[in-house]
Amino acid sequence: MPAPVSSDPADLLVIFGITGDLAHKMTYRALYRLERRGLLDCPIIGVAADELSEGELAESARAAIAAGGETIEESVFGRLAKRLTYLHGDVTDAEVYRRLAKKIGRNHRPLFYLEMPPALFGPIVERLDEAGLLAQATVAVEKPFGHDLASARDLNARLRKVLREDQLLRVDHFLGKEPVIELEYLRFANLALAKIWDRDSVAAIQITMAEDFGVQDRGAFYDPVGALRDVVQNHLLQVLALVTMEPPSGPGADDLRDKKAELLKAVRAADPKRCVRGQYEGYTDIPGVAKGSSTETFIALRLEIDNWRWAGVPIFLRAGKELPERLTEVRLLLRHTPPLTFLPSAAQVEQNQIVLRIDPDPGLRLQLAGRNDHSWRSLHLDDRFAQDLGEPAEPYERLLHAALTGDHQLFAREDGVEETWRIVQPLLDEPPKVHSYKRRSWGPAAASRLLRGHPRWQEPWDVEKS
């Protein structure tokens, strides 16, 4: 094993796969925004198989930044372009790493960011180790971290042969979203929320991640994956951990990740009988999708947490494509008030709700009950975070900066990842049948029956109308 890594920030960024899709959609733009804010302070080496000059690489970066909606300031882009150098070759070839070692030189603390398919994570870190490049390094890898519990354990074991856990950053871009980070502070810094955030006050929790578009031209990628692996095992279970965990005991990265892992260990493994899978009409006509495919493009499931705070509170998750709108939200439905005699009995007071909108246009809503002369009415106390907290950094901008500066709070840890796979493994072993659903509907009707005896799926918070 390499010597202990320095706690100092990285002084060099090496991006494997710098000509790939993620770099063009996210990484270049994040680097440009960091440069503009004066937060980028290291050379960048791109590694990929494409034969490009460094000038061509810079022009590719410029095009990607502009396509991402940024107005390019020439002085800012000029500084970023000067940081970029390039090394091309096959990442499984030892010669690439000899050339990379020569290019890096001695006494650097590199961050190796692997924007590559997971099958290459092991070979790349092993080649880096053989070239003597891991002693003071940190390695960041993109999800997915395996495709089931066994493969996640195998991948972790392979990486841990040459890396310690504190050298390894597992990137899930949801953990870089401002409202996800804000969850910890909303819960524990506000007594008004902390006192009702448990089984005594909460009747049910609903977490929804909806997309109003389909698989489109990504059929070959999506069909072997499906909604459960794509967004539930990682994004939604990480959000669930933050919604329901106990307060961290300190400010460190492992203080937070200890509590997330503790919570995930308390989540019962998912029951296939409490899961509904759906597939939107026309999915199997998409190029790259297998004829007769049973891959789910929608999934809804019920989970339970076996701990003192949440015992008996049902947790409902749903995610899908070709739904009526694009949004991600967390909703806590509080218990009904008692039917006191002074309250009008014509209609029961509607449940109070706490709604955290994660994406897009993040915000917080408190739904209370009021009454005019004739009937009960819902009162909404809304806050859009950008108005009061300012425009946030984008997820990859935040994650890259955290990785470069040595802040590991925003990255998943090995034990937490394995727990999320444990939770969903029964659904992979015994997948429920797939129900067809119409495009731009809220999924198959069976998803509503999943909530029988509990509050129905709630209409999402329409931020534009509030």
TrEMBL record:
<dbReference type="GO" id="GO:0006006">
    <property type="term" value="P:glucose metabolic process"/>
</dbReference>
<keyword id="KW-0521">NADP</keyword>
<feature type="binding site">
    <location>
        <position position="177"/>
    </location>
    <ligand>
        <name>substrate</name>
    </ligand>
</feature>
<feature type="binding site">
    <location>
        <begin position="90"/>
        <end position="91"/>
    </location>
    <ligand>
        <name>NADP(+)</name>
    </ligand>
</feature>
<feature type="active site" description="Proton acceptor">
    <location>
        <position position="235"/>
    </location>
</feature>
<feature type="domain" description="Glucose-6-phosphate dehydrogenase NAD-binding">
    <location>
        <begin position="14"/>
        <end position="180"/>
    </location>
</feature>
<feature type="binding site">
    <location>
        <position position="173"/>
    </location>
    <ligand>
        <name>substrate</name>
    </ligand>
</feature>
<dbReference type="GO" id="GO:0004345">
    <property type="term" value="F:glucose-6-phosphate dehydrogenase activity"/>
</dbReference>
<dbReference type="InterPro" id="IPR022675">
    <property type="entry name" value="G6P_DH_C"/>
</dbReference>
<dbReference type="InterPro" id="IPR022674">
    <property type="entry name" value="G6P_DH_NAD-bd"/>
</dbReference>
<protein>
    <recommendedName>
        <fullName>Glucose-6-phosphate 1-dehydrogenase</fullName>
        <ecNumber>1.1.1.49</ecNumber>
    </recommendedName>
</protein>
<keyword id="KW-0313">Glucose metabolism</keyword>
<feature type="binding site">
    <location>
        <position position="143"/>
    </location>
    <ligand>
        <name>NADP(+)</name>
    </ligand>
</feature>
<dbReference type="GO" id="GO:0050661">
    <property type="term" value="F:NADP binding"/>
</dbReference>
<dbReference type="Pfam" id="PF02781">
    <property type="entry name" value="G6PD_C"/>
</dbReference>
<dbReference type="GO" id="GO:0005829">
    <property type="term" value="C:cytosol"/>
</dbReference>
<dbReference type="InterPro" id="IPR001282">
    <property type="entry name" value="G6P_DH"/>
</dbReference>
<feature type="binding site">
    <location>
        <position position="49"/>
    </location>
    <ligand>
        <name>NADP(+)</name>
    </ligand>
</feature>
<feature type="binding site">
    <location>
        <position position="211"/>
    </location>
    <ligand>
        <name>substrate</name>
    </ligand>
</feature>
<keyword id="KW-0119">Carbohydrate metabolism</keyword>
<keyword id="KW-0560">Oxidoreductase</keyword>
<feature type="binding site">
    <location>
        <position position="321"/>
    </location>
    <ligand>
        <name>substrate</name>
    </ligand>
</feature>
<feature type="binding site">
    <location>
        <position position="230"/>
    </location>
    <ligand>
        <name>substrate</name>
    </ligand>
</feature>
<dbReference type="GO" id="GO:0009051">
    <property type="term" value="P:pentose-phosphate shunt, oxidative branch"/>
</dbReference>
<comment type="similarity">
    <text>Belongs to the glucose-6-phosphate dehydrogenase family.</text>
</comment>
<dbReference type="InterPro" id="IPR019796">
    <property type="entry name" value="G6P_DH_AS"/>
</dbReference>
<comment type="pathway">
    <text>Carbohydrate degradation; pentose phosphate pathway; D-ribulose 5-phosphate from D-glucose 6-phosphate (oxidative stage): step 1/3.</text>
</comment>
<dbReference type="InterPro" id="IPR036291">
    <property type="entry name" value="NAD(P)-bd_dom_sf"/>
</dbReference>
<feature type="domain" description="Glucose-6-phosphate dehydrogenase C-terminal">
    <location>
        <begin position="185"/>
        <end position="455"/>
    </location>
</feature>
<dbReference type="Pfam" id="PF00479">
    <property type="entry name" value="G6PD_N"/>
</dbReference>
<comment type="function">
    <text>Catalyzes the oxidation of glucose 6-phosphate to 6-phosphogluconolactone.</text>
</comment>
